[in-house]
Amino acid sequence: MVDIEERRPRSRATTFLLVIAATAFVVAAAFRLLGIDGTRHMVATTALVPYVTAAGVLLGAVALLLRRWLVGTVTLLIALVLVAAVAPRAFPDSRPVGVGQQVRVMAANLMLGRADAEAVVDAVRAHEVDVLAVQELTAAMIGEFDRAGLGEVLPYRVFLAAPGGAGSGIASRHPLTARDLAAPSTLRQAGALVDLPGEDVEIVSVHPLPPTSPDGPERWQRDMAGLPERDLNGPFRVLAGDFNATLDHVGLRRLLNQGYEDAADQVGAGLEPTWPAGGVWPPPVVIDHILVDNRCPVDTFQVIDLPGSDHRAIVTQFVVPTR
After folding, report:
1. What is the CATH code of the structural domain delimited by 100-321?
2. What is the structure's pLDDT at 4?
């Protein structure tokens, strides 16, 4: 009798802890499944959905092993729904046949102009980049790019330098024409038409305000809503940069529903984190993206280290088809 009475409190305590953990998991999962961005803390939680998913699978399995059938079943079922949303990012999609101009685009957040300019230029050369989209571009960084020889490989540019993290820019191997493609935003988001040998492409250097700002996520939501939709009657369009959003956030999923494809997701690299570079806290997440018109087949995607920046740079190659 003594042994049984001593085990009962521990059993109730285990059940209580499992219920608390399961409740926290269900709440976090609900933000994603119901499409709720909410407060800045809710937005931050949604960015962790791949981790939340893994935790839910583990928690559900443990609950079932401990014979907490209701807790385990509910948790595991919800976790499997999340798995269905997250797991495909790790596997390549079928590539449609595309004949046309191959284009390589690179996006890089320069961390307030502190990134190593020579490393950026070296990456441009090594990956034979055609178009470079940069965020957090400062006037001093432009000078460093000039000294590093960026103009030799990408002679055309639309640079909107600004202090701190507000600047952005586009540099290209092909002629550029500046265009206002994004709606007015908190941070500058350069836009341009790239005059390719075949079909032209419009590109935006994307950088909405981070949603974790103490002022709340409203300006981030507005900036995301101001990004241009795909235009079936105009040039092919590419959005490249630091979205401060993952594939689980409503604003980014809206763009995907409007005819864009995430290049990383297309080739099975959609779970490779881009920020913070080299860190373990906050947990690394995927907030840098290159979204391409879904009529443009994606060939490759890479995440590369960028010395001096808290972001990793991304490079993709896709085909701009002949219409």
Report:
1. 3.60.10.10
2. 45
Residue with tokens 């890089």: 108
**Residues 282, 134: Cα–Cα separation, whole Å:** 23
The band of 9, judged by pLDDT with boundaries at 50, 70 and 90, is low
Please say if the pLDDT value at position 8 is more than 80. Answer: no
Q: At what angle do helices 69-86 and 2-33 cross, to 10 degrees?
A: 30
Residue-range domain boundaries for the chain? 2-90, 100-321
Q: What confidence tens digit (pLDDT) does each residue in 255-282 have? A: 999 999 999 999 999 999 999 998 778 8
Half-sphere exposure of 244 (CA within 13 A, CB side): 24
CA separation for the pair 282, 152 (Å, rounded): 38
Contact yes or no for 178/189 (Cβ under 8 A): no
Strand partners, 158: 170
- What rounded mean pLDDT belongs to the chain? 93
Integer Cα distance of 207 and 112 in angstroms:
13
Are the beta carbons of 43 and 257 closer than 8 angstroms? no
pLDDT in tens, 185-234: 999 999 999 999 888 999 999 999 999 888 889 999 999 999 999 988 88
Mean pLDDT of 174-180: 97
